[in-house]
Amino acid sequence: MTAEAVVAAYVFVLAIFVGFEVISKVPSTLHTPLMSGANAIHGIVIVGAMLVASAIPGPLGVVLGFLAVVLGTANVVGGFVVTDRMLAMFKQKPRGQAPSNPRKA
Amino acid sequence: MAVEQLIPVAYLIAAVTFVLGLKGLSSPTTAVQGNRIAAAGMLVAVVATFFAREVQGGIPVILGGIAVGGVAGFYGARVVKMTAMPQMVALFNGAGGGAAALVAFLEFARSFQGYPVELGPTIATFLGLIIGAVSFSGSAIAFGKLQGVITPRAFRYPGQQAVTGLLVLAMVLLAAAILLSGRTGVFAVAPGTFLVAIAIVALVFGVALVMPIGGADMPVVISLLNAYTGLAVAMAGFTLSNQLLIVAGTLVGASGTILTRLMSKAMNRSLANVLFGAFGAATTAGATAAAGGDDGRSIRSISAEDAAILLGYAQNVIVVPGYGLAVAQAQHNVRELADVLESKGINVRYAIHPVAGRMPGHMNVLLAEANVPYEKLFDMEQINPEFPRADVALVIGANDVTNPAARSNPGSPIYGMPILDVDKAQNVIVIKRSMKPGFAGIDNDLYLDPKTAMLFGDAKEAVGKVVAELKKAA
Q1: Is B294 among the domain residues?
Q2: Residue among B375, B335, B349 at smallest CA distance from B28
Q3: Catalytic residue numbers of B?
Q4: Distance separating the N- and C-terminal Cα atoms of chain B
Q5: In a mutagenesis test of the B interface, which of A13, A35, A81, A84 is the best target, namely the one with the most B β-carbons within 10 Å?
Q6: Could you give the number of structural domains in chain B?
Q7: pTM here?
Q8: Which of B112, B243, B267, B436 is deepest in the core (most CB within 10 A)?
Q9: Could you say which of B79, B107, B135 is where a domain stops?
Q10: What is the per-residue pLDDT across B265-304, written as a single tens digit (0 to 9) for each?
């Protein structure tokens, strides 16, 4: 194994433990937002997509690179916005209001 | 050059924000903040990446892709209805999986131009490609099932296990073929062709994995695919030697695994049972057993007026919301009903089963959308001892989570699943469209209980009628 691969393996193993530790304390009411938030975080693949966007020359490389960036961005932006919308529902709103305005985004 | 050296620092900051973000999401008071911290970290990482040398050749392509993907993601996330949240998460998850597969593919194509094939990164590349592609097609099927584009029923066919096994074997053989010929440098077929073949087989495998699973289990599947995508991203990180991708992907892989286990546990089924499960097969056995045990008890149906009277004279009411409430978008009407009852001095509480709605916490989100105060929502463990003291338990569009067979009938496929003890309330009103069984496909003994009254109809309409009757009486 190269030194780089060893470091990567360390990072991988330690991240597993961090993931378990951080997440095992979440109340069940927040599971759906958590899943959505985690979904947004793996959108970090957008960085990988940027790095390989011009990896192979020619039209096929451009098309695939473009597609990778589109999908990665949709994952990031959609994930964070959906999570934010879900969490906005948990905020305390002034009581006594008639639910006449339900379709607020 | 100096700026490029700062990129790893930016990545480190981003990795820290992701950990803090996930930690923030663990409490209702810090969740919003947590999500935004992670989003800010993502922005830092993306901006920093623009200074990387590899990126310089493709800036226009990247900017174009960000514009298109950003608009699509933002628009989709803003317009989706709260009830459609699970399939939206599936869709974004699939996008991430597809991106990871493409990254693996492109990186392999690049590293192959004149470089020798190294074992470690190549295996990581294959895994990234395969897992990403499986997540992509699997999420698409999950989306289709929840959206109703594809039949939500479990699609089974003879020889299913054999087909799944063959697909796995095909992927392993193809990967081995590339590795071997790459090591010797002799290629019978162009390596790109092999790679495309692997991707296609992986896509088919994703479809084959999710199609046999019923709609009720989709949340578990989405959660699992979420973890898969995380893993695929981590693999892409290995391929690119990018620590940030490894950290973020692994964090999600770990979290998704825990969440998946929690969800299947709430349904009292192992993950293996969900994936290869005999739920469909057990259904018929359970149904016949229930039919055999039918001792002439019958179903009692009541009108909205009767329901209003029953509720109007109660002191303690516990509302049990289920998926039927969510699809009928009845959460606002239920809130109105609770307001009317509370104005009469009646104590109204909500009993939330861990898997009410479509995912853990989904029902809380829906009720919060209708301004139901957080402190009125009770978890199963908190509310179950309260049912004997409740005058009326109002079940709206929930079925399997109230089935007493889970407690009493070891032959039932849902035996052992934790349920809400609705049958212990003094009176039970069940609002339901028809006598159709729930997602588990089994009959519910609760409906045959003498103290249970059925109010048939769409949840929204039925609740609306009850509210109108209550207001008339007042």
Answers
A1: no
A2: B375
A3: 400
A4: 77
A5: A35
A6: 3
A7: 0.76
A8: B267
A9: B79
A10: 766 667 777 766 544 433 333 333 333 334 455 778 888 8
Looking at the fold, whether B172 and B271 belong to one and the same domain comes out as yes
Look at residue A75 and tell me if it is in a domain. Answer: yes
Evaluate whether residue B293 is within a structural domain.
no
Position B292 in a domain: no
Q: State the count of interchain CB pairs (< 8 A) between A and B.
A: 388
Query: What's the sign of the alpha-carbon dihedral B404, B405, B407, B413?
Result: negative
Q: Which of A81, A52, A31, A82 is nearest to B132 (CA)?
A: A52
Assess if residue A53 is contained within a domain: yes
Q: Specify whether B57 is located in the same domain as B134.
A: no
Question: Domain end: B276, B307, B333, which one?
Answer: B276
Task: Identify whether residues B212 and B309 lie together within a single domain.
Answer: no
Helix (H) or strand (E) holding B351: strand B347-352
Q: Tell me: do B326 and B390 sit in the same domain.
A: yes
Question: Which CATH number do you get for residue B450?
Answer: 3.40.50.1220
User: Quick one: closest CA in A to B64, which residue?
Assistant: A66
- CB-CB under 8 Å, A75 with B99: yes
Q: Which of B88, B335, B379 lies nearest to residue A82, judging by beta carbons?
A: B88
CA angle, A88 then A94 then A100, to 5°: 80
Number of domains in chain A: 1
Terminus-to-terminus CA distance in chain A, angstroms? Answer: 51
What is residue B352's three-state secondary structure?
strand
Q: What is the pLDDT of residues B52-77, one digit of tens each?
A: 988 888 899 999 999 999 999 999 99
Nearest CA-CA partner of A79 in B248, B16, B372:
B248
Residues B2 and B103 in one domain: no
Q: Does residue B66 lie in a domain region?
A: yes
Name residue B71's amino acid: V
The C-alpha atoms of residue B320 and residue B200 are separated, in whole angstroms, by 45
Query: In Å, what is the CA distance from B450 to each residue of B25, B309, B428, B429, B446?
Result: 44, 18, 9, 11, 9
> B183: helix, coil or strand?
helix
The residue assigned the tokens 């990018």 is: B242
Q: Both B98 and B208 in a single domain?
A: yes
CB proximity list for A64: less than 8 A, separation 6 or greater? A56, B102, B105, B106
Domain hosting B205: range is 85-276
In the DSSP assignment, the letter for residue B447 is G
Q: How far apart are the CA of B357 and the nearest CA of chain A, in angstroms?
A: 11
Domain hosting A53: range is: 28-88
Q: Which residue of B has its CA nearest to A26?
A: B26
Of A29, A51, A74, the CB nearest to B55: A51
Residue B416 backbone class (left: φ over 0; alpha: ψ -120 to 50; beta: rest)? left
B36 and B175 co-located in one domain: no
pLDDT (tens digit per residue) in B306-348: 888 888 888 899 999 887 787 777 888 889 999 999 998 899 9
Q: What is the ipTM of this complex?
A: 0.86
